[in-house]
Amino acid sequence: MAGQRKSVTRRTVLRGTVAGAVAAGAAGALRPGRAAAEPGPAVAILGGGVAGLTAAHELAERGFDVTVYERRALGGKARSIAVPGTGRDGRPELWGEHGFRFFPGFYRHIPDTMRRIPFAGNANGVWDNLVAAPEARFSRRDTDDVIVPLGKAGKVWASPDDFRETVSSAISTTMKMPQTDALHFANRLLVFNTSCDARRYGQWDRVSWREYVGAVGRSTEFRMLLSRTLTTLLVAAKDDLASTRTIGNMGEQFLGNPFEVANDGPLDRLLNGPTNEAWINPWTDRLRELGVKFVSGEVRGLELDGRRVSGARVVDAAGNARVIEADHFVAALPVEVARNLWTPEILSLRPELAGMSQLVVDWMTGIQFFLRNPSDIARGHAAYVDSPWSLTSISQNQFWNRTPMSGLGDGTVQDCLSVDISDWNTPGILYGKTAKECTHEEIAREVWAQLKAHLNDRNELLRDDDLHSWFLDTGITWDAAARRNNNADPLLINTAGSWALRPESHSANIENLYLTGDYVRTNVDLATMEGASESARTAVNALLDVTGSTAPRCKTFTLYRAAELEPFRQLDATRFAAGQPNMFDA
User: Fold this and answer.
1) Residue 212 and residue 216: Cα distance in Å, rounded?
2) Which CATH architecture has domain 2-71+297-357+502-547?
């Protein structure tokens, strides 16, 4: 039995090697379909979100026998959610989302997978369903909004002085910010971009973004746009908690992406239809073609036999429990679930996993407003800078050329304003309560009021008569007795100092257990589906090493860094080792 195996057997290694040879082929390419050869080692993937599906994809292409166990719905937080009972006269139901999709150009792992998911009529598979957003809107209460075009930049800066001048001028012009504040922020970006890795991990990861940028004493525009909004948009975290290394890394990508160097495409991209139709369903179809099996079940625990996982306890929807066995186990569970599996026995073998109990999760969840008329807010994402609940939105119908809203529901919906709520802990303007304390009806009314307060102060862009209905992510459930919401899908927050608490994907101390998820250490280092995808590839590569497979390793990518600033990063490595500050850190 698999539960009795105490080490990787010679037969397991040979099967993995044969499967790898089949996968590699004469040219080293992965096989396009299911091989006739004997399946490779059995792998149980615990969790069917982006991390789990990515691991399943990579392993199945390399000939492994893969089964995915998922407690709710494949796709996890990335999936669409059908709005029950909304379809009429043969039309499909309206689609809700955990949150609007966002595929920035610096994502490279997710697009690489998308190109390997066939889609009828698309030469590049699901990847061809990505469309670019040409602009972003930063909406303010009682003042003019800022529309920022998102296009390709003309040239890369040639020197640190050029960097400061170019970036500060762009910030001052587009954000209507005092030049002194814009120059200060540009210099803080320069300090980070010229910081060596040792400083980023050893110094900046321990400093909050607010402290790093020196927000105290700066203009309101500086504090709201460059300190608060940046952090809530990226990681749903407060600027006094978010790690400077994480926010700085993302700022580095957003600065570099317009030059279209070392990236996959335009800065802001979305899918051209509901996520399930344009991505998740074609993906799971492809995985089934490759032989992946999907089983409904919630993981309740792991069983050890020496230094190997011998089985996982799974409970199905009916409450029936059983122990599943496999040669290898990939834990593709979110951090708040995974850390509950670490028994004293597991922690004795991998004591570093104890740090996961200190990782912070918070809420960033979507609500959709279905409209009877098209909205005219922005040709891209909009951020509502002064909103207490840190709202952002996208008007979806303008991008959904495959599945227009008029073809869904009762036929009267013409648009969907998909909104993310990033701050669930600050009182709102309508009821004076936090989102966690509001009923679902109150959440909808409060979000609508905050949107109108931003958009209707100059022109009436949102009209009550246009509101057809709304849908709140089903992960949010109301506890009437406690007068408070629960959230089944919280989000990891990259707080200052959290890198030290996060584990690597694999350790030889538990030889057949592999961790994947956006809490695992990755290069992208952000709670995103890109981080989930990168961590899954790292886990699969570790599994290939353990089995001795000759199959090609999964591609992994690194974040962009301006080559022009590399000499300054090398100099900074010497300065950091000597205990000196970055040369631009005045």
Assistant:
1) 10
2) 3-Layer(bba) Sandwich (3.50)
